[in-house]
From TrEMBL:
PROSITE patterns: CARRIER. This is Acyl carrier protein. Residues 1-83 form the Carrier domain. NCBIfam families: PRK09184.1. Pfam families: PP-binding. It comes from Chryseobacterium glaciei.
């Protein structure tokens, strides 16, 4: 799962245009919203699109995103359990 976490960090930096952030700065357990990376609701929509496009995961309930996008660890675990690609 470590490779998936690193892959997610690369994709998040790329998709959200976080040019000033390196993968080393993103800790696996840091919050993605609020503290941590400080992402916002527009970023959440981008992450939902990323899950669909790259992993074949469609989120029917946007409220579930709050649980999934807590950290890199929670995203990676969800992807491992639900990916179709």
């Amino acid at each position: 799962m470590e490779n998936l976490q690193t892959e997610l960090k690369h994709k998040i930096i790329e998709v959200l245009n976080l040019e000033d952030v390196s993968i080393e700065e993103i800790k696996d357990t840091d919050p993605l919203f609020g503290g941590g990376l400080g992402l916002d609701s527009i970023d959440a929509l981008e992450l939902i699109v990323l899950l669909d496009k790259d992993y074949g995961i469609k989120l029917a309930d946007p409220k579930k995103g709050k649980e999934i996008f807590q950290s890199i660890d929670t995203m990676a675990k969800f992807i491992e359990e639900n990916r179709t690609k």
